[in-house]
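Hello again, I could really use a second opinion on something today. I've dropped the whole record in just underneath, so have a look.
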Amino acid sequence: MTKKISLCILFTLILNVCFCQSTDIARLEYTLIPENSSGIKKSRYRFLANAPIKLKEGNYFVAGLEYNSIDYDVNKAFPFDNSELKNLHIIDLNFGYVLKMESNWYAIGIVTPRWASNFSIGVEDEDFRLNYTVAMFKDKKEIEKPYSLLFGLTYNSATGLPVPLPLISYQKRFHKNWSYAVGIPKTDIKYHFKNSNTIKAGVLLDGYFVNIQNNVVLPDNDFGSAVSLTAIVAAIGYQYNFTKYISFYGFVGRTLSQKSVLRNLERKTAFVLNNDRNIYFRTGLKIGL
């Protein structure tokens, strides 16, 4: 069981760096970006679970499921019908392969079939996308100052940036009470209390890209066929551990950059919904560490 849990943590560490998720086996999370001058309040509920399957010594297949429900609460008159934006959904199936190599190195490959849509008329071909990740990971725990190194490439439509992105993370416990993580798209520093509760501060990337089935007709005769969000967030948070594996966490921050837009069929910006900085909240319950 211990080895299976450690493989889950390794797999979800990759997902953590790729999708700004917590390292966990299961998680229930709520994110809120309150209304600002844009007149839009965005909220998101997220659930995920992962499980490893041993194939042979050192090699594991890991399967996971994630569901996101995103709600747009619009309190401003826009020059188009915004009803198609009220309820958005993202469904991910994560399939990963972990290969143990020499000198504490692991090779990881992840394929993520994704359905991202408002599903107003069922399921369409445009709702489906594939995300890919390839990475190398090294973990050194049994030393005075343990560390881990992860690097690779990921193609992830969740960021709203439909191009391959670099994937790198270096984490180190440089003091019995302090650790840090430096990388793309997440960097933070943590203070660890004696009871394993943690305070952290850092910068992360958040976002999504969701198909709109009934295209939104815009005033300039263009069409909004998708909605995307790309945000860079600076935040400070706290994690409370009920047990060794069950934790509650929450943090508050501010978007250093935020761009929420409708995109046309060519994925170009058709209408800017919000590009102002805003407060950012996230809280959740996780099982894993």
